[in-house]
Amino acid sequence: MKAATTYNIDKLRKDFPILERVVNGKPLIYFDNGASSQKPQQVIDTLVKYYSGEHANVHRGVHTLSQHATDKYEHTRTLLQQFFNAEHDYEMILTKGTTDSINLVASAWGRAFLNEGDEVIISTLEHHSNIVPWQMICKERKAVLKVIPINEKGELLMDEYEQLLSDKTKMVAVNHVSNSLGTVNPVKEIIRLAHQYNALVLLDGAQAVPHMKVDVRELDVDFYCASAHKMYGPTGIGFLYGKEELLNAMPPYQGGGDMIDKVTFEKTTYNDLPHKFEAGTPNIADVIAFGTAIEYLNEIGMDAIAAHEEEILEYATEQMRQLEGIRFVGEADQKAGVISFLVGESHPYDVGVLLDKLGIAVRTGHHCTQPLMDRYNIPGTVRASFGLYTTKEEVDQFIKALQRIQPMLS
């Protein structure tokens, strides 16, 4: 698939001031978007404008500044509803990010509905944030955690998944896209099969939403979560989508602030959605700037971004195949903009340090997926992850850098 002819990469790159930076005497090539994407000037300006002349607490004041901040804060919720095609804006809970969202569901839903002998299914591809909360709640509730295996290419073994499903299955929690390998999971089929057993499905969308259009109603997913900082927005903010009836049935996750309706020393009643799950003063500035990031992505178009990144991924993969000693880890048929690899017998850390000397930022290590690395019997990988501003010229420089450092690693 070719990138859209209207996709002006040079113009887009000018929106990101950090891309002008020089690192170790070389122009920065930022291939660590899987960890966190860079921020356009529009998002930075929103943060400065808010703190310079708009700051007030939300939902609590009748004065002009408070009402203005509340309107902007809630506008982001509306943008999220539209971006992900949720039925209601109050189905979009604003959280600290993907990890916070998963912990919210595991704790609030798990304590209310998970019982002894029930089963939760995750996959070998999961980030620790989608493993540990389920381990914790399963231990607490005496439930059983089961794991979908993968093949050598890094794809879920769907036949094995079907065999794991049973009437005991209450939740299936998997990522939409693997952060380590870039595998795009067959999530619609995962959801369809789980629903046959009346099991719920939570999708960790952190690595999917920067790269592709996501429609929660078309997927029929029960819970979906992601983080702003991977969507060209600020850190420390994200969202949890949940179907209305599920969120209403869940008890609050934390107490205090806007999540209350009426408090007495004898009893407290809770607020309606979404405020029931948003205790305390929220991260107002970053929520508003998250809205700016969504508007930025809307202006470019997710289809255009997906087409551009697919072209970059195909080009980089083909160029790397020409190099001696490169071992790809994870070669799924369906991938997003991630290449995970090793250089000969070299430790990933050594590769990353040498690339950094040439101005190229990649991620090295286990990528918070230690069980996945154990599956491949490796300590970790080098991960190059691409974004909407990645160019073929940067890929070419990356290839030259790999050629240059290979003799140093032998």
Task: Describe it.
This protein is α/β, with parallel strands linked by helices and 410 residues long. The protein has 2 domains: 9-40 and 301-409, Alpha-Beta Complex (Aspartate Aminotransferase, domain 1), CATH 3.90.1150; 45-298, Type I PLP-dependent aspartate aminotransferase-like (Major domain) (Aspartate Aminotransferase, domain 2). It is 40% helix and 17% strand. The protein contains 14 helices and 17 strands. The chain has helices at residues 9-13, 41-53, 64-84, 98-113, 132-141, 158-164, 187-195, 216-219, 244-249, 284-300, 302-321, 348-357, 370-376, 392-409; strands at 22-23, 26-27, 29-30, 92-95, 119-123, 144-148, 169-175, 200-204, 223-227, 238-242, 260-263, 268-270, 326-328, 338-343, 360-361, 363-365, 381-385. A 7-stranded mixed sheet has the order 4-10-9-8-7-5-6, sandwiched between helices. The protein has a 4-stranded antiparallel sheet with strand order 13-14-17-16, with helices on one face. A two-stranded antiparallel sheet has the order 1-2. Strand 8 (200-204), helix 8 (216-219) and strand 9 form a beta-alpha-beta unit. The longest helix has 21 residues, at 64-84. The two termini are 37 Å apart.
Report the strand count. 17
% residues in beta strands: 15-25%
Helical content (DSSP H or I, runs of 4+)? 25-40%
Shape: globular
Supply the number of helical segments.
14
Briefly note the structural class of the backbone.
Answer: alpha/beta
Distance between the termini: 37 Å
Lay out the secondary structure.
Elements (H helix, E strand, L loop, with lengths): L8 H5 L8 E2 L2 E2 L1 E2 L10 H13 L10 H21 L7 E4 L2 H16 L5 E5 L8 H10 L2 E5 L9 H7 L4 E7 L11 H9 L4 E5 L11 H4 L3 E5 L10 E5 L1 H6 L10 E4 L4 E3 L13 H17 L1 H20 L4 E3 L9 E6 L4 H10 L2 E2 L1 E3 L4 H7 L4 E5 L6 H18 L1
Parallel strand pairs: 3-15, 5-6, 5-7, 7-8, 8-9
Antiparallel strand pairs: 1-2, 4-10, 9-10, 11-12, 13-14, 14-17, 16-17
